[in-house]
Amino acid sequence: MGIFVLFFLVLVPLCEQTWGSRYFTIDYNANCFKKDGECFRYISGSIHYFRIPSYYWRDRLLKMYMAGLNAVQIYIPWNFHEPFPGVYDFNGDRDLIHFLNLTSELGLLVIIRAGPYICAEWDMGGLPGWLLNKKNIALRTSDPDYLNAVDSWLSVLLPMLKPKLYNNGGNIISVQVENEYGSFAACDYNYLRHLLHKFQLYLGKDVVLFTTDGDGEGYLRCGSLQELHATVDFGPGGNATKAFELLRKFQPDGPLVNSEYYTGWLDYWGEKHSTTSKELVSQSLVDILETGASVNMYMFEGGTNFGYWNGADFQKTYKPVTTSYDYDAPLSEAGDPTDKLDKIRSVISQFQPVPQGPVPPPTQKLRYGSVSLKKIGSLVDFLDIFTPSHPVETQYPVTFEDVKQYFGFVLYRTRLPRDVLTPTPLSTCSNGVHDRAYIAIDGVFKGLLERDNVSKILVSGKASDWIDVLVENMGRINFGASFNDFKGQVWINGFNLGRYWAARGPQITLYVPVNILKLGENTVVVLELEQAPPDPPSVMFIDKPILNSTVYKSKSSLL
């Protein structure tokens, strides 16, 4: 009788078998992250995909990888992806999934800061302006109107992220809930618990969720929650040991993390350009890594606040952020490696292997020289183009949000009801202008009003003369192109480069990414708001940025 041997072939999908051996978690007994069973430390850098054209994403990420980082940290700005309620945009420079795919291809892990509030010196901290259409809404609280909008957004965003989680075969190792909530006065724990529930609902209960707050007891008390892993942020020159000792009062076990180690700082219009020495940054990085902590460097590349995306702070006075978000980071605004990057790479090599070979070189910069401009008209000459349907007519002035104009400018027009032959003060209440108002009578500029600078302008005119009040939103508070003494906005081929304001500084030039240029004819449009020059002006394309000047004498724009 023959002997029959039966072979049973069991087919197991390779990807499921691989995922089964992959997991990222926290070992509270060993006080470390566990990646695939081994204690793991990340050395990460922040990069904002929304401040960098997608054309450059791979270049920037490759430089970060070659600098020795094993992870990157990113914010996700809600208002960048949901411009109107229920309208979502994840295409082109907003293609979040494409960006995450690039990080995976380059072998970088990802730390997500999903908000819904992100700060980031971004307009309204990433919250959509349309939230303010609910007049009594209480942002970043358990207010039902706010939570309904948040829940709708998270129901779209978080399912997109779930397949990218490390435990599901992706490269996202942790997700932050809210952002530095301890710095917000509400201290609403029910709000944090609500977010925790939603994050776990969509991402699962095995994902590492965390919070980030300043290294102050009050910040950590209101910003942390028992079910979320608490981390801190602090910059160079501080006492890392002391900061982590304070963290241990709120997070007794688990890995120590500095989620925002500041490599530089942001700039405000009218203030000096911020810099932090490479020696201080590198030495304090050593101090952090010697404690065994994980660290994220904020920023590793800052990028640019193109268009109207810059935010603002309120520290006794209103302080709008410059167009450049260079941040004095290891990679410049244009993505070029700096001496600071070399020092940081040297430090990292003392604690973990860095990739062999050099960091990719700076991208090529071209000095195109001077390009003449011609004046094509005043703003009021093009109202039919700007409002092709019809203007909004109201009895009293209304807000930007009321007319669903969430960025940029609104022109308010009315007529003088009677002759005003004697110059008469035109003033505004203390809460009337956000943030600058340009006043003209029958097309003649008379002056401007600013937030925090309530002044009076003398006006006169005849009955039925137009009064034009052009109000500029300079950037909502977060909870090179310019003429000397001039201020405005620049577009190239329809792409909004952002604001210039050389009279205030410190930024003089605007960054021009190569992907917006084309062979042949290019169109440059300059909206000058304050002092259009009598002579035909020009723009000057140069190959080096000017970010550190408060006075720059020139008859030309610089790009």
TrEMBL record:
The active site is at E180 (proton donor), E260 (nucleophile). Pfam families: BetaGal_ABD_1, Glyco_hydro_35. Residues 397-489 form the Beta-galactosidase 1-like first all-beta domain. This is Beta-galactosidase. It comes from Hymenochirus boettgeri. One of its GO terms (molecular function) is beta-galactosidase activity. PANTHER family: BETA-GALACTOSIDASE RELATED. The keyword Signal applies. One of its GO terms (biological process) is carbohydrate metabolic process. InterPro entries: B-gal_1-like, BetaGal1-like_ABD1, Galactose-bd-like_sf, GH, Gly_Hdrlase_35_cat, Glycoside_Hdrlase_35.
